From TrEMBL:
Every Furin-like cysteine-rich domain range: 155-254
InterPro entries (UniProt xref): Furin-like_Cys-rich_dom (IPR006211), Rcpt_L-dom (IPR000494), Rcpt_L-dom_sf (IPR036941)
Membrane topology listed for this record: Single-pass type I membrane protein
Keyword Glycoprotein listed: yes
Annotated ranges, domain Receptor L-domain: 49-146
Protein name: Receptor protein-tyrosine kinase
GO cellular component entries: membrane
Pfam families attached to this UniProt entry: Furin-like (PF00757), Recep_L_domain (PF01030)
Cellular localization per UniProt: Membrane
Keywords: Glycoprotein, Kinase, Transferase, Tyrosine-protein kinase
UniProt organism field: Rotaria socialis
Amino acid sequence: MCEKQNGCFFFSVCGDIRVTLLELKRGFHAPTLSSCEISLGSVIYAPMHFLVNTSATTAIQFPNLREIHGYMLLGYSSMHSFSSMFPRLSIIHGKDLYHGYSLIVMDNVFLEDFGLTSLINIRQGNVIIARNARLCYAESLRWNDIMEAKKTQVISRQNRDNCAFCPTCPSACWSPTQCQQRCSPNCQGNCLSETVCCPEQCVGGCHYSNITVTSSLICNACRNMRIYATGLCVEKCADNMLKVNYSFLFFQCFPCDNRRL
């Protein structure tokens, strides 16, 4: 989780997250990435379940990951749901795409539902969901609410097609018991709940910070840049602030010891 140290907000950042057969043979150590909140690269979970110890790969979790700057590939796994693996993932930027796709979900033989219940924004790139023989509800989701770029495509094929109805939700769902979050039209696609809008400069939703006494709303990601000292998202830097490009956030380091971190 983000922490406030010396008056400034710090976010746990990592590069690519790769759970592949090669990485597993090398001795992939998931706990070193369990605190990561922002992936500056892409997330690839493709363990080739038929060649590795299944219990070792299904126990991997990234409980704090909120933001992916590249693409996300989920494939060749024995997962039934990704709800426990990525419970807080809210935004995929798609700055780096896989053959034009920012989200790829393919060849998960036991996958029954996505479970990506916090995902509310994909900024760029297409989506493909294919050859997941048991996967339900791929057709029920309101993908137009998730996809920011209006000319993108969502391709769904060779999944289970007889379970599109959501039994406990009014319209769209990730699973039989997990409804897709809906924002009020006033929130412009960014909300904490249906009735609580996020600040205007947020993308990918927001969350309450338990760091400050006022428990203010903190953006999961910023549309433009973030003030380093407060964690707030802004359209541009103030005149007395230095814009620092970390490729994922523009941090304004003042008044944090008047130096660039």
